[in-house]
Amino acid sequence: MPPASSRPVDNLDDDDYPAYTMGRAAEMLGTTPAFLRTLGEHRLITPLRSEGGHRRYSRYQLRIAARARELVDQGTAVEAACRIVILEDQLEEARRINEQLRARSGESQPRTTA
C-alpha cells in the first residue's frame, strides 16, 4: 500500500498539488497559455513539470494567476501586477503568522500604544 501522503484522495485537498495542465489552467482562468508563461517569466508562479516536461499548476497558483489577471484587466502592467500580487501574498502570510503568534501567547487583541 502506498504511503498516505501519496494517495490520490489526499491530493484532492492539497492546494499545492500540481493538478492542472497549462491548457486547462488557461481555460479555467479565461486567458491564454502565453499569459501563464508571462507570469512565470515574472516569477509570480513557477509551475512544476510533469515527467514529460509539461507545466502543471496547483489551485493556489491558479488563484494567484487569477488575481494577476484581474489587475491586468483593470489596466495594470503585467510586471506591476505580478509585484502587487507578490506583496499581497506576503502581507497575507505575515498576518497569518501574527495571528498564530497571538493565539499562542493568549493575546486576543493587538496592543496599541498611546
Automatic annotation (TrEMBL):
Can you say what this protein is called?
Answer: MerR family transcriptional regulator
Pfam families attached to this UniProt entry: MerR_1 (PF13411)
Superkingdom of source: Bacteria
Q: Which GO terms describe its biological process?
A: regulation of DNA-templated transcription
* Record SMART domains: HTH_MERR
Which SUPFAM superfamilies does the UniProt entry name for this protein?
A: Putative DNA-binding domain
Q: Where is the HTH merR-type domain?
A: 19-87
**Coiled-coil regions listed in the entry:** 77-104
Q: Which UniProt keywords apply?
A: Coiled coil
As one GO molecular function, the record gives: DNA binding
Q: Which InterPro entries match?
A: DNA-bd_dom_put_sf (IPR009061), MerR-type_HTH_dom (IPR000551)
